[in-house]
Structure formats: C-alpha cells, structure tokens
Amino acid sequence: MAAVAALAVPVLVGAAGTAEASTPSGCSSVTQIGSTAYLDVDGQTMASVKQYKGCGKNYAYMYIWAGYRSTHSSWEACTSIVTGDGNTYWDAFCGGVNPVEFWSFGAASLAECTRARGWNGNFPAEPGDVNAFTDVRC
Q1: Which label site among 17, 76, 85, 89 has the fewest CB atoms less than 10 Å from its CB?
Q2: Average pLDDT, stretch 73-78?
Q3: Domain that holds residue 76
C-alpha cells in the first residue's frame, strides 16, 4: 500500500494497520527509537505514534489508521516530543482536520529523556482527550 499526502508530507508504506514513515521535512535520515504506541479511542485503534531520532533532533510521528478513517467523518489529532510528566511539549504539531499522517517539527532534545505523545484533539491537549505515549528514551 502506498499513499502520498499533500504538502511535502512523507510517503507512507505499510501493511494493513501498520505504517512506516519515510522522513520528516528537512531531514533525510531518521531511526525509530523505542516502542510504537497505539491511540485507542472508544474501543477502536485510531492511530500509531512513534518517536524517531535523526539530524540532531527527536521527532514524533503519527499515522491515523485506515479503519478509523473509514468509520469516522471527522477527527483531529496532534503529536509532540515530550519530557517529564508528558505535558512539557517541545515541538507539538497538529494535523488539522482529518489528517492521515504527520510529523512533529523536531526537537533539539537528544540530551533529554523523551517520548512521543499523540492525542485526539487540538493543542493544547484537553483533559478529555485520549493520549498515547511511547516508552521513554534517554
């Protein structure tokens, strides 16, 4: 399966339910660090959230699953590299209305312990938003 999103968003390649992102804008080589987190909303997997490192930065990546997109007419989602309690944002990016995949801006946080956070909502995250966190990487 291959899909190309508009506005210089990277190519997406993967099997049903999985996503392997190419690279974020401005960085030609990244490596996933840590686990993949899954954002489950109302009993359905909405998205995968991953943390990458490359080009001197950490990046968060979010992919909205096709199954979720096919059963919902509208959604919003954001992702960011976070530290500490998960509420200290480095580079939050929201995909707008009905995004398929997107990267955070990139955080110069390689010397910090970080994880990627994804949530179903806008910025800043609200108490009712559902969150997914990758494991912490130092």
Answers
A1: 85
A2: 96
A3: 2-133
